[in-house]
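Before we proceed, please read the two lines closing this message. Tell me what the token row says about the fold.
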Amino acid sequence: MNLQRLRGLIRKEFIQILRDPSAIAIAFFMPVFLLFLFGYGVSLDAKHVPVAVVVDQPTAETSAFVGGLQHSPYFEPQITTSMHSARRALMARKADGILWLRSDFSRQMLQGNTASIGVLINGVDANNARILEGYLQG
């Protein structure tokens, strides 16, 4: 960039600020305000998200898993008796997702394998669904 052009650009902006002092507010105060607003006022943390939990075969392992969810600040598990009632809770927006512990969950855990878990998430709000998916995977 040419030094003479840079000087001309700086001079033009300086004259613009002298003519319109509100440009200072737009240039300096607005970004600081937005930084505080998005830094402290807007939180994307999911806390106490209602999740319907379906346990096909209750065992000690499934109870320990559900107990971990109950002690988590991120989830508010609602134990349901069947997938049908969990789907109704999801459709009625009483739950944002369904966590399904299948009948072979305990067997897979006892064998030392990674136990598969069924997860259904309400995808109406895509951002909320991705956040919930990330927390459940964690």
Remarks:
- The mean pLDDT is 85.
- The CA atoms of residues 59 and 106 lie 7 Å apart.
- The domain at 49-137 is CATH 3.40.1710.10 (abc type-2 transporter like fold).
